[in-house]
Amino acid sequence: MKKNNKARQQKNQKRNRKRSTRERLKKKEFEKVKLQRRDERIKERRLQRETAVMEREVEKMQNRGTQIRNNHEQKGE
Fold it and tell me: How far is CA 5 from CA 9, 11, 19, in A?
């Protein structure tokens, strides 16, 4: 009886060890994926900001060009 009980305990310990190892690995994988997603979101936001800044720059340049054109037209009249 004691022998059987000891064998059962060892089997349970082994199973629990495997389970905890699997859970730890799963947790690490999840963290890794979570960090990758976060990095992707950060990169995306950065690109959106850069795009917005570039669009503003282009708009400013277009406005300057329009002002210069208008000034030349007024001087010609």
Answer: 6, 10, 21
Q: Which amino acid is at 76?
A: G
pTM of the model: 0.58
Integer Cα distance of 25 and 51 in angstroms: 39
CA distances from 43 to 1, 27, 39, 40, 50 (A): 63, 24, 6, 5, 10
The residue whose two tokens read 């850069």 is 50
Tokens representing residue 6 in the block: 């000891």
CA distance 58 to 64: 10
One-letter amino acid of 41: R
Q: What is the pLDDT of residues 30-42, one digit of tens each?
A: 999 999 999 999 9
| Predicted confidence (pLDDT) per residue in 51-71, tens digit | 999 999 999 999 998 888 888
Place of tokens 């570039």: 54
